[in-house]
Amino acid sequence: MNAPSPDTLRRGWCPSTLKPMETGDGWLVRLHPPGARLTPAQLQRIAALAARHGNGLIEISARGNMQLRGVTAGSHPALVATLLAERLVDEHDGDGPQRLTLVSPLAQLGCHSGASRSEEPGIHEHDEASGRAGPLGASCIQDSVHGFRAQACGLPRNDGLGDRIDALALAAEIEARAREVSGLPAKFAVVVDGGGESSLEAFAGDLRIVATAPGRVVMALADRLWFGPLAESEAGAVVAQVLARFAAKRAQTPDAIRRMGDLAADELAALTDLPATEAPAARPASRRAGLFALGESHAALVGLPFGRAAAATLDRLAQASEMLGCPEIRLSPWRGLAFRGLSEANAIALLDGAAADGLITCDDDPRLSVQACAGAPACSRAEAPAMADAARLAQVLAPDLAAGLSLHVSGCVKSCARPGASDLTLVGESGRYRIVIGGGARDSAVATLDLSALLTRLQPGQDLHARLRAAGRLSGPTK
Ligand code: SF4
Q: What spans are recorded as compositionally biased (Basic and acidic residues) (predicted)?
């Protein structure tokens, strides 16, 4: 296995297994498991590899991708060889995205007309021991959960998530067709939304498919223009046509066209032969953690605080899920893992154990409203310890975060964790934070403060709290 070239390792590259990205704590290696799903045994295996070949930290990105941190030039070849040999990743050689579709981890298999299209997982089992810690819940994390060792909360549930198409099967078809299209940007995103209660409206997409009726979908381009309706069975071919036309358009001026949103309205409309249509009605936001009833079985959706966990934590979680009979784990864009196919009692047991281990099991956990990058010391570009400070900020702002305030803590202006605007954005700068209200990392700051002053002035009755309220970024009674 050859080491990646220095050019491959440049920052800003969309990383993959074969093309890691250099960061402050070593190489970041992104994994794309086949079909975006894992068995508990596979998750244990990945945890063991993260500990052996990296620094033992595992992340799940806001695109539902898994990534290992702290890999080195010396450890990368053996890591890649093992991942490929054990079919833990599905890497292709093309120039486009390794995976471009985003599907809810709670999407129902075989919904409506696509019942026969869902593939069996083809999951590769193995039985190698993985350096296990004790059973989940037997020893709680002491150092990284920052006071959030809550119990699994009131366990609300959804009975019947109401998907109107087989979003998983459609996403698999789109992935297969997209591999035939060269010239797509590496970060191109296709959102496939089954139209049920697990809405993906919160995630931006270059192209979006939303089911509006059983077996019927509409399509959005750049989240601006809507087209359709069309049959679920035709959607894969229509998306492939759009991708091919976009790639051809982009080939004319690749530097000017990086994403679908760079095209004007008439250029977007020229990508499809479908008629324009109205945007579908907005749906309530999805729950991002907790217990879900999926037909006859249940799922436990567990979030990783700020998208990151120790390999040992995930190993304990995987072991527990295996003991509880979980057949399938899906990666969640809410930066966690969905353990599917469980009985209700076993899903609750898994959530209880995860909560005791410091993981997120309640939709109102304030950490779910915080986006934070690794920051210092993990990232060499960081000008502040973003992730560590995010935990303290989440505690101070817990009531406001639970009420809907969005907080982004970025170690520097590059804004890796969240490209867009938040109610409150904090940008690391020489050990302090630039404070942006209602904007992104490059917008004008209202002040620049160190963490201590920031924590004080964000308290009710202090000036920054008042400014957030005046900007309409806080709800609830004035204090
Ligand atoms: S935003 Fe965070 S992770 Fe990205 S380069 Fe800056 S400090 Fe590093």
A: 117-130
pTM recorded for the entire structure: 0.83
Is residue 101 situated within a structural domain? Answer: no
CB 34 within 8 A of CB 75: no
Host domain of residue 239: 163-196+202-269
128: pLDDT strictly greater than 70: no
pLDDT digits (tens, 9 = 90+) for 383-402: 999 999 999 999 889 988 88
Closest CA to ligand 1's atom 2: 411
Domain termination site, one of 29, 50, 85: 85
Q: How far is the CA of 180 from the centre of ligand 1 (A)?
A: 33
> Do you know the residue count of the chain?
479
Please report the pLDDT score of residue 136 as a whole number. 40
> Does a structural domain hold residue 31?
yes
Q: What is the pLDDT of residue 121?
A: 36
Half-sphere exposure of 435 (CA within 13 A, CB side): 17
Per the DSSP assignment, residues forming a β-bridge with 35 are: none
What per-residue confidence (pLDDT) applies to 157? 52
DSSP 8-state code for residue 328: E
pLDDT level of residue 118 (50, 70, 90 thresholds): very low
Indicate whether residue 104 lines ligand 1 (CB < 6 A): no
Nearest to 102 by CA among 128, 64, 73, 132: 64
CATH number at residue 253: 3.30.413.10
Residue 379 CB less than 6 A away from ligand 1: yes
Residue 325 counted as domain residue: no
